[in-house]
Design goal:
Blueprint (H helix, E strand, L loop, with lengths): L2 H17 L3 E5 L2 E6 L9 E5 L2 H16 L17 H11 L4 H14 L9 H13 L5 H20 L20 H6 L14 H11 L16 H14 L3 H5 L6 E2 L4 E4 L8 E4 L2 H9 L18 H21 L9 H13 L4 H8 L15 H6 L3
Antiparallel strand pairs: 1-2, 2-3, 4-5, 5-6
Length: 385
């Protein structure tokens, strides 16, 4: 910010303290307002708007009410009462051990919607919020569901603590995140499509060859792979256990039990703990890997639980395997597709129930496994008369 503007905002802030009028300043790419009224407001009101005109208009209406001695209901509270989404999220994250993904999503929501008063959270607000994510930001249906889910879990906690009467997000209909024809008129329609990419036996063989140091077809030399043994072990675990990438590269040696043929996951994407059984192939991969060390199983992560560090590590490994898949001739193959492959094999090669498979894969909603039901079509036919 230029020096002249900085002096202007500092002076305005000082005048605001003296005259008890609203002050504003531009910080963190948003306009921050502070409203003070002695004997009317129990504490200074802090508001944040991304649009200056919208903020000026709201604060002007609020000051007009205060000038006439009228205090809006949301401000007629004690200093300790939670009144905004920002305050709710802060209290929620302090009181509840939530997943790193939810923390990241809620941090974004605080920047965008933190100024929203809890008293205004109704079904209409929910509809407008979802519509804004479609038409204003053109987010995919999956991303919209992630944001809604994170805030819904926060508001569920708020309802239990009686900070709000009920959670209006739970009233949204099915397929609320899907784009309608009306949405498509305003924004590019985003298709909600699950990836069904599987790896064939030939592709799997070529990937293992590349990981083993074989020269890719049409190239003069093999790929230079740092931590080659770790990459081989990671690939085998992914395709045999259906674990997520982050769940694997953050493993410690203490979580692996060769004797019990299990891996214990104490921190997962959805926050649940689970035990993952090891197939004979996964067990052999671990036994071939160096299990005599202590600490972390894989070398790419240093134990820093910061969400940005985890995100960067996930991105680096995803790009590394993209190079490997490309060298193996696996078009449009992503590392996360291995989780889909592993889940498919659990349906094809075992008679485990949906609930048992969900306990292995960590799918919290059984509906997520519905798309695998067709893999057992022949089994169902064989059980008919």
């Amino acid at each position: 910010m230029p020096l002249v503007d900085m002096i202007y905002f500092r002076l305005r802030e000082f005048i605001g303290w003296v005259l008890l009028v609203a002050t504003k300043r531009f910080r963190n790419n948003a306009w921050a307002y502070v409203i003070r009224r002695k004997n009317l407001l129990p504490k200074p009101v802090h508001l944040t708007f991304s649009d200056e005109a919208e903020g000026d208009a709201y604060v002007a209406r609020l000051e007009q009410l205060l000038d006439h001695g009228v205090v809006p209901a949301e401000f007629q509270v004690s200093a300790s009462t939670i009144t905004t989404v920002r305050e709710m999220v802060i209290e929620y994250t302090v009181a509840v051990d939530i997943s790193s993904d939810d923390k990241q999503l809620l941090n974004v929501l605080v920047e965008r919607e933190g100024h929203t008063f809890l008293s205004t959270l109704d079904y209409t607000w929910c509809e407008n919020w979802v519509r804004g994510m479609k038409r204003g930001r053109n987010l995919s249906p999956g991303t919209i569901r992630h944001y809604v889910g994170a805030l819904a879990r926060c508001l569920d906690w708020g309802a239990r603590k009686e900070h709000i009467v009920a959670n209006p997000l739970r009233l949204l209909p099915k397929r609320y995140a899907s784009y309608t024809d009306a949405d498509a008129v305003v924004a590019k329609k985003r298709i909600d499509q699950s990836r069904d990419r599987r790896i064939s036996a030939e592709e799997e063989q070529r990937v293992r060859a590349i990981l083993g140091g074989e020269k890719p077809e049409g190239r003069q030399r093999a790929l230079t792979l740092m931590h080659q043994e770790a990459l081989i072990c990671l690939f085998e675990l992914a395709i045999e256990t259906a674990m997520r990438l982050r769940e694997m590269y953050t493993l410690s040696y203490s979580q692996v039990s060769i004797k019990d043929r299990t891996i214990y996951l104490d921190k997962t994407k959805n926050g649940d703990k689970r035990q993952v059984p090891l197939s004979s192939v996964a067990l052999a991969a671990l036994e071939n890997y160096d299990l005599r060390k202590r600490g972390l199983l894989f070398p790419w992560w240093d134990g820093d639980a910061n969400s940005e560090v985890l995100k960067k590590t996930t991105g680096r490994l995803s790009r590394q395997f993209a190079r490997i898949f490309d060298a193996a001739g696996c078009q449009d193959m992503r590392f996360h597709d291995l989780r889909h492959e592993a889940t498919s094999r659990l349906y094809e090669r075992t008679d485990l129930s949906d609930l048992e498979i969900a306990k292995i894969t960590g799918h919290k909603d059984p509906k997520m496994l519905m798309r695998y039901a067709n893999l057992r079509g022949s089994n169902l036919a064989g059980r008919l008369w």
